[in-house]
Amino acid sequence: MSDVEDIQDPLSIAEKWKDEGRDVAIATVVQTWGSAPRPVGSHLVIDGEGNFEGSVSGGCVEGAVISEALDVIGAGKPKMLEFGVADETAWRVGLSCGGKISVYVERLV
Amino acid sequence: MDFQLLQKLNAERAARRAVIHVTGVDDDDEQLVLEQDQISGELGEAVVKAFNSGKSSMVEIAGRKTFLNVYLPPARIVVIGAVHISQALAPMAKLAGFDVRVIDPRGAFATEARFADVDLVAEWPDEALETSPLDAYTALAALTHDPKIDDFPLQAAIDAQCFYIGALGSRKTHASRVARLVEAGKSEAEIGRISAPIGLDIGAASPSEIAVAILADIIQALRKRKAVAQ
């Protein structure tokens, strides 16, 4: 139950980064099926250099979300990402808990 | 997400107001909805439901996939009285994930030595609550037995619709408290919201046991009646 002023709060960090002139993307868990490590609504924020704060899983798919976020920052168009055991990328990045999540990645403009 | 919208969202969260960020994920349009906003149609129904449940979710609005991200203020507990029970309640509540503030104007009670690492305010409740007001995502526990200290915050908690209001004291103490609240213009239903004697009935005897009973009472109110952010 973190205070919104908390240094770890992803959306406060996104605001601060943008104020500093950095490019920022916000990734949000928008749907989960089965067992998922982070609830719907959780955020991961990423800057143009690949720095990140927050989480959308227990560390399982953050790497993939960060590289997609860099694409989104470059192209400006939001993306919907899906991760899970049924996903064709499961052998590469996936959720070991067996769940499935959708992550929406958008640029802060 | 639009930067000005993010600034507004962060400002609403910092002010402890509930807010929903609505995103049409297929065409990347978005808006912020505050609790007092009157919105008609399918979206209106969906946001009312989301405010009540506190749950973020993907919904279909007019055939379009729409994500509602609900931001509710984190739950906190305001304790009136830096008494023995509060010394146990404050760390327990913190462990359970609540923000805790203890208010007591009596300098002899409100000392750093008795409340290390606790947000302690040595002011009268009316002053302390003016700086940081009660709200619907706050529980109030009045523990001094002293009407001069407890009565004002109890009335303020009723007005602010705190999700939990509890007051320590025997049935006799509470009966005279009820009479004073009626005198102050509070309705029977409003006064009935006060948990008194405070705490779940688990036969608690020591100050620490009473703290457990109070904390359990607060958690029950939080989880069974009103949603608050995790």
Question: Secondary-structure blueprint of this entry?
Answer:
The complex is a heterodimer of chains A (109) and B (230).
Chain A: H1 10-19, E1 24-33, E2 43-47, E3 52-54, H2 62-75, E4 79-84, E5 100-107
Chain B: H1 3-14, E1 19-24, E2 29-34, H2 41-53, E3 57-61, E4 64-71, E5 76-80, H3 84-95, E6 99-103, E7 119-121, H4 125-131, E8 138-142, H5 147-159, E9 164-167, H6 171-183, H7 188-192, E10 194-195, H8 207-224
Parallel strand pairs in B: 5-6, 5-8, 6-7, 8-9, 9-10
Antiparallel strand pairs in B: 1-2, 1-4, 3-4
Helix pairs in contact in B: 3-8
Intertermini distance of chain B:
23 Å
Which percent range fits the helix content of chain B?
40-55%
Number of separate helices of chain B: 8
CA radius of gyration of chain A: 13 Å
Which architecture of the largest domain in chain B per CATH?
Answer: 3-Layer(aba) Sandwich
CATH class descriptor name of the largest domain in chain B: Alpha Beta
Silhouette of chain A: globular
Q: Name the beta content range of chain B.
A: 15-25%
Q: How many discrete structural domains of chain A?
A: 1
Task: Report the principal-axis shape of chain B.
Answer: elongated
- Beta-strand content of chain A: 25-35%
How would you characterize the overall build of this protein?
Chain A is globular, with a radius of gyration of 13 Å. Chain A is 22% helix and 29% strand. Chain A is built from two helices and five strands. Chain A has one domain (10-107). Chain A has 109 residues and is α+β, with helices and mostly antiparallel strands. Chain A has a five-stranded antiparallel β-sheet. Chain B has 230 residues and is an alpha/beta fold. Chain B has two domains: 3-71, no CATH class; 76-224, Rossmann fold, CATH 3.40.50.720. In chain B, 40% of the residues lie in helices and 21% in strands. Chain B has helices at residues 3-14, 41-53, 84-95, 125-131, 147-159, 171-183, 188-192, 207-224, and strands spanning 19-24, 29-34, 57-61, 64-71, 76-80, 99-103, 119-121, 138-142, 164-167, 194-195. In chain B, strands 7-6-5-8-9-10 form a six-stranded parallel β-sheet, sandwiched between helices. In chain B, β1 and β2 form a beta hairpin. In chain B, α3 packs across α8 (207-224). The mean pLDDT of chain B is 93.
